[in-house]
Each structure stands twice: as C-alpha cells, then as structure tokens.
Amino acid sequence: MRWLIPLVYVGILCIAFVFVSTSLINLVSEYLFSQKIREEQRQTVDYAAEAVAAAEALNADSLYEVALRLAGQGGGRVMILSNNGVVLADSSSLYNGRRLAVREVAETLVTGESSYGFYDLSDASRSQRYRNLLGVYTAPIRSGGTMAGILLYTSDAAEVNENLSQMRQRIVLWIGLVIIAVGLLSIFVSRIFTKPIQELSDGIARMTNGDLHTQVRVKSATEFGQLADAFNSMSQRLEALDQTRNQFVSNASHELKTPLSAIKIMVETLQMQDPPDPAIEKEFLSDINSEIDRLNAIVGDLLTLVHFDSGKVDLKLEKIRLDQLIVETARRLKPLADARHITLTTNILDGIDLTADSSKLQQVFYNLIDNAIKYTPEGGSVTVDLERVGHNAIAHITDTGIGIPKAAQVHIFDRFYRVDKARARATGGTGLGLSIVRDIVRLHGGSVSVTSEEDKGSTFTVDLPIVSIVV
Ligand SMILES: Nc1ncnc2c1ncn2[C@@H]1O[C@H](COP(=O)(O)OP(=O)(O)O)[C@@H](O)[C@H]1O
Ligand SMILES: [Mg+2]
Q: Is the CB of 433 under 6 A from ligand 1?
C-alpha cells in the first residue's frame, strides 16, 4: 500500500513525459525542417546568381560545369533550365533536354519568383520509419530585366531525418533516465515521510496495548521529529503516572494493613484470655479504638486525595479573612502545643481579605501547624506569621524542631512520604498531610515550599494570590 502512491506518481509522470517529449520532437523537427528550407531556398537563389553568366552565354559545356560545381557545393542535384522549362544542364546528366513538368518550375516561370516544394519518396511497401522527402527549390536566373532561365536544386531530407532519429533516441534515453530518477526519488521521499508516521503509529499501537513504556525513534529535524519527541515525553509521563498510581495503591494498602494487623492481634489476644483480665481488656480496647481512629484518619485523607485526583473538587469560595482563619486554627491547636510545652505564637502583620474555600484553607494551616508542633521537641516554639507582599498573602510556619534532611525535602510533599517512618507512626501521622496541603494550595492558585535545617527547625511558606484564584 505504501508503494502504491509513488507508483501512481511515476505513472502520471511517465504519461506527462510522453506527451511532452512527443510535442518536443514535433516542435524540433518542424524547426529543423523550416531551417533547412530557408537555408536551401537562400542557397538556390545564390546559385541562380552564380549561373547567370553561363545562362546568358548558353554554352552547354559551361552550363554543365556550373551545374556540377554548384551541386558539389550544395550536396544536392542542380539543373539549369531555359526560360521555357527545358533542362539545359543537369548535374546528374539524366534530364538533359527534357521539359520538366514540376509545379515549382511552372510557378517560377509564371511568377518570376523562387519556389519550393516537397515530394514523398518513401517506399510504402517497405514501411520506412521516417518519411524520405525530396525538396525541390527553384529560383529565376535573372539577366538584366528578363529571366534568362531557372535554377532548380533538389536535396533529400535524409540528413534531417538522420538528425531527428538521433535526437529521438536521445530524448527517449533521457526521459527513461529521468523517470527512473524521479521514481527512485519519490520512493526515497515517500520513505522519509512514511517511515516516521509508521514508527509513530506503531508506537501508539504498542501504547494502546498497554506498553506505556514505549518510545519511538524518529531522527528528523522536521515536525515529525517534534511529534516523536512529544510522543516520547507523553509516554514517559504516562508511565510515571502509572507508576505513581501503583505506588499509591500499594502504599495505601500497606498503611491500612498495619493498624488492621494490630487490631487483629489484640482481638485474638482478648479472645484467648481465660479468665478475662478487665485491666488488659480496657487497655486493649483503648488501643483498638486508637487504631480505628488511625484507620479513619488514613481513609479520610485517602478519600480527600482521591477526590482531588478526580479533578471534581468544588471549592466553596467565599470572602474570608485569612488572618482570622490562621489565628482561629492556631487557637484550636493551642492545647496540643501546651501539652508539649511548646510556645505557639501568631504574628499577623496584615489583615487580608481573600476569596477562598475556608474549611480547606483551615485544613492547610491545621496540617502545617500540627506538623510543626509534632516535629518539635518539648520546650521549643512554633511561630505563624502572615503578611501581604504585592498581590500575595505570604504565611510562614516556623518551628525550632528536628528539621528535615536536605535529601528528604523534595519528597515530603509526596504521598505517604515520611522522613522517619517509625517515629511518624508514633506521632500518628499518615504521611498524607503535606500532599493534601499542596493540593489545596494549588487549587487556590498558590504554592507551598519548605526550607529546613536538621536539628535547627523548618519553615513552611504558603504563598496565596489575593486577586485571582484558579479552580
Ligand atoms: N515541621 C516539620 N519538621 C520536621 N519534619 C516535618 C515537618 N513537617 C513535616 N515533616 C516531615 O514530613 C513528613 C510528611 O509530613 P506529612 O505529610 O504531614 O505526614 P505526617 O502524617 O507524617 O505528618 C513527616 O512524616 C515528617 O517526616
Ligand atoms: Mg502531618
């Protein structure tokens, strides 16, 4: 199928070339003939001028001599006729004394002008390839004001025919070469175009069959190359997305399994108790209760994230006072800070009006302040400040806590990522808090970042645009 298109092109080209070459040959042969006619006409007139003296003298010998000489010059046959059409001298000595009943002679006799005509000498029975034409030219031999005679010159067209047949062969050869070259070129060009398309469609087919890892190799500076690059980065992204999703499912299952196993062990232990010890029963039930709380928290966070992922989040936008929201959130966490002997202060530099989803922004600051308290040893401090910079509300949540290692800083917003898994479990974290924070902030058109130094503390910065919000 791919070869069909170039073949059609070559076919069309062949037909076009045949037309062009036929008319070219016709044109050239017409030109060559007209050249020859003009040339020989002129020659005949010249010859007539040269034969004047002999014709005036009417000397048979000198007439023959002139005819012979002129025939030798022109390569044809020369006859000198009297002014009534009788052959006085014939370079071939055949028609001497005969009256020539030739149209051209009659015409010159009547008009006194030169004339020419052609006679087809082809042998029809031998089916000659080219017509063998005999050209007959006549010119008056003028002596003073009168016509002393007629000069007749004949030549065959063999030479022209020979030239034409050579030219025809050459044209056919060239056309053949051109057709082959064009054919090869069009196959080559079509390969340049069809190969990358084939590569791409193969790649798409592989991807459709589930091979997200697939890459196409198109080395081309054209749009095909760009298309292939776009395809490759799309497939890389899809693959990464697929991996993230698998990772997420596996992490989620793992996170859910841990409390479930703990609950199962405790329930089994309780079942095996004989006789039941009310003190242990009480302790285990309380542990089971907190494991269930943990499960609840994880499932709640997971639902929130899945909801964000589905892209169907409706932000309940309303006019809020960001400064008040932050102060209120900090107040809710104050007991937690107090319990850990951590001083929690808010430092509001600007009152800021914002159009935002109040409960979601509360979640953001709750998670960040909660983390700051959780990851700060007793006796430390947590400060939340808020200021307006240009069209942005900038909030810093700064703690004097354990800090985050450099290598971990890029990952802490990833789902389920926790720097120290054992300790995080003890603090009750799910590892989903910061990714929820990032999702919410992004939904509000803002960004969140961290700077941190181990054993010194961390600062989380939330940057929210005040004017526009992106839902
Ligand atoms: N203020 C902080 N100081 C030190 N480490 C932090 C702080 N906030 C977050 N982290 C680290 O980032 C991880 C991810 O945070 P988060 O997503 O809120 O999960 P978690 O449920 O563990 O709190 C935490 O486990 C912790 O290791
Ligand atoms: Mg957290």
A: yes
